[in-house]
Amino acid sequence: SFPGSRISDYSSHSSHSPNIPKKPSCFPNFISSPNIPRSPLLLGKRKMVEPVALESDEERSLLARPNCGDGSWRLNFDGVQLCREQKEKKLPRGLHDCLGVLGPEDNVADYYQQQVEMLEGFNEMDALAERGFIPGMSKEEQEKLAKSETFAIRISNVANMALFAAKVYASVQSGSLAIIASTLDSLLDLLSGFILWFTAFSMQTPNPYQYPIGKKRMQPLGILVFASVMATLGLQIILESMRTLFSDHEFDLTMKQEQWLVGIMLSVTLVKFLLVLYCRSFTNEIVKAYAQDHFFDVITNIIGLIAALLAKYIDDWMDPVGAIVLALYTIRTWSLTVLENVNSLVGRSAAPEYLQKLTYLCWNHHKAVRHIDTVRAYTFGSHYFVEVDIVLPAGMPLQEAHDIGESLQEKLELLPEIERAFVHLDYEYTHKPEHAQAN
């Protein structure tokens, strides 16, 4: 049978109408392209209801073309390619991108980038469906890369501890509120690294009786606790800076104190900048996060040093104002972190693009799958829980149905973003939902 026998809902822009001109094969509009079968997964839908009768010869011929898989039951995107000029379109980079000022060309480049990523995701799911694993580097290459990434993380942590101690000394010697606020931001990096380390250490000692689904939720919970502490410290610095602004306190540095301050802060900034360049050479998300933290440290160190020097040579009020700016930045950073981790704990749905990939994988898993009733992925900590409901023939033996469902579950759990997958098997799709409606 061909894919049309299991597809329940065609796009309203279906090209079987003779009045709609055909588009070139390089055009990447996957929903309306006449060269591939229509599937609700491309529209972000999660349900596939009753089959569609193919009433026209044109419809049958479209679904039977070679680039549709020679009439096979799998969805196939091998015949869909982007033109070279479309592949070469790059997303904008620069100040106008940071400010959110995007023109029509930028939107077009973003559109084609999304199409490329969607095709790559489908190809990855094809490899997983056919081979049972995600192709990648060899074991030796993975071990070599893992060692270099571990070294980058360790050297970042060691540097953070050493530089934090140096900034504490600079804060004590200078008494500058701006330097103290910059030191508080360095403490943020240390605590973040400690949380990641503690989470990894806790996961190495699982307890299936007390924690049957693991301890990965300790990471967002720990971040929430430390975020409360950091926000309190930031507010304390703001209050102290406000008190200093309205007092007769005079900021002064001796020549020796100034030399120590400038030397320490410039050295810390230089080391952080070198770490930015080093960590940006990796593709690992954790190492890239360290690179971003190092970059922000460079900015806060420069702001703190400039505020302290301006307070000495121009006016006293510049030091507490610089401290307030840095404290507000620290509070904002932790607030965004809190929102991100709250979303990971409340069970927020995965992006539609990710649900498309999962639906595509389920559809191509086995030819006995008649319908895909539900594909649901939601956060439960730092990873996703996935629920899939598929419909199999009513007369299929239990052993065969069980093997199909179990192998699909194993494929889903091979994806790095998924912590646990649940596959529910059914023989029809017209029933009411099995679970009570969520509140």
CATH class of the largest domain: Mainly Alpha
Helix- and strand-based class?
mainly alpha
Estimated share of beta-strand residues: 5-15%
Number of DSSP strand runs: 3
Biggest sheet, spatial arrangement of strands: 1-2-3
Largest sheet: 3 strands, mixed
CA distance, first residue to last residue? 41 Å
CATH topology of the largest domain: Alpha-lytic protease prodomain-like
Oligomer: single chain
CATH architecture of the largest domain: Up-down Bundle
Keywords: Ion transport, Membrane, Transmembrane, Transmembrane helix, Transport
Subcellular location: Endomembrane system
Organism: Juglans regia
Transmembrane segments: 176-200, 221-239, 259-283, 295-314
Compact summary:
With 439 residues, the protein is mainly alpha-helical. It has helices at residues 57-63, 84-87, 95-98, 104-131, 139-174, 177-203, 218-245, 255-279, 285-313, 318-345, 352-363, 398-414, and strands at residues 371-379, 384-391, 418-426. A three-stranded mixed sheet has the order 1-2-3.
What does the secondary structure layout of this molecule look like, with pairings?
Blueprint: H1 57-63, H2 84-87, H3 95-98, H4 104-131, H5 139-174, H6 177-203, H7 218-245, H8 255-279, H9 285-313, H10 318-345, H11 352-363, E1 371-379, E2 384-391, H12 398-414, E3 418-426
Parallel strand pairs: 2-3
Antiparallel strand pairs: 1-2
Helix pairs in contact: 4-11, 5-6, 5-8, 6-7, 6-9, 6-10, 7-10, 8-9, 9-10
What report would you give on this structure?
The structure is a single chain. It is elongated and about 90 Å long. β1 and β2 (384-391) form a beta hairpin. The protein has four domains: 1-78, no CATH class; 82-136, no CATH class; 146-345, Alpha-lytic protease prodomain-like; 352-426, Cation efflux protein, cytoplasmic domain (Alpha-Beta Plaits, 2-Layer Sandwich), CATH 3.30.70. α4 (104-131) packs parallel to α11 (352-363), α7 (218-245) packs antiparallel against α10 and α8 packs antiparallel against α9 (285-313). Mean pLDDT is 73; it is low at 1-71. It is mainly α and 439 residues long. The chain has helices at residues 57-63, 84-87, 95-98, 104-131, 139-174, 177-203, 218-245, 255-279, 285-313, 318-345, 352-363, 398-414; strands spanning 371-379, 384-391, 418-426. The chain has a three-stranded mixed β-sheet. GO terms for molecular function: monoatomic cation transmembrane transporter activity. It is a multi-pass membrane protein. It is found in: Endomembrane system. Keywords: Ion transport, Membrane, Transmembrane, Transmembrane helix, Transport.
